[in-house]
Amino acid sequence: MREEVHALAAGARAPLAADVTFRPRDSRRQFRVHATDHAIALLESGLCNALSAEAPDCTLRFLPIQIDDAFVLRQGSGDLAFGVLPKLPEDFHT
Predict the structure, then answer these.
(1) Cα 79 to the chain's mean position, in Å?
(2) Contact yes or no for 61/70 (Cβ under 8 A)
(3) Is 54 within 8 Å of 25 (Cβ atoms)?
(4) 44-71, pLDDT tens digit by residue?
């Protein structure tokens, strides 16, 4: 049984050790950006142009900023937030 536990643990660690280098030209992911209407108006054109040039198969999805965006970012259902977020955990970068 010990061997099975070690094999299971090794299998669980494998994805964490994998090369996760982001390759923009090969990616097809959708980035979820939480932002105020004002931030979207200022940034949307430039972000979309840069994304289409560097990562042509990626998309941006703009969503309204929420009071709990720190939670949304931490759980992975959002990728970036632009706006005033009054209560951020200490390990978040602003």
Answers:
(1) 3
(2) no
(3) yes
(4) 899 999 999 999 999 999 999 888 788 8
Of the CA atoms within 13 Å of residue 7, those in its CB half-sphere come to 4
Surface-to-core class of residue 45, CB atoms within 10 Å of its CB (0-12 exposed, 13-18 middle, 19+ buried): exposed
How much is the pTM?
Answer: 0.68
Write down all domains in the chain, each with its CATH number in brackets: 2-82 (3.40.190.10)
Closest listed residue to residue 25, CA positions, set 61, 56, 48, 59: 56
Taking alpha carbons only, the member of 81, 85, 77 closest to residue 39 is 81
Q: Measured between alpha carbons, how far is 57 from 28 in angstroms, rounded to an integer?
A: 5
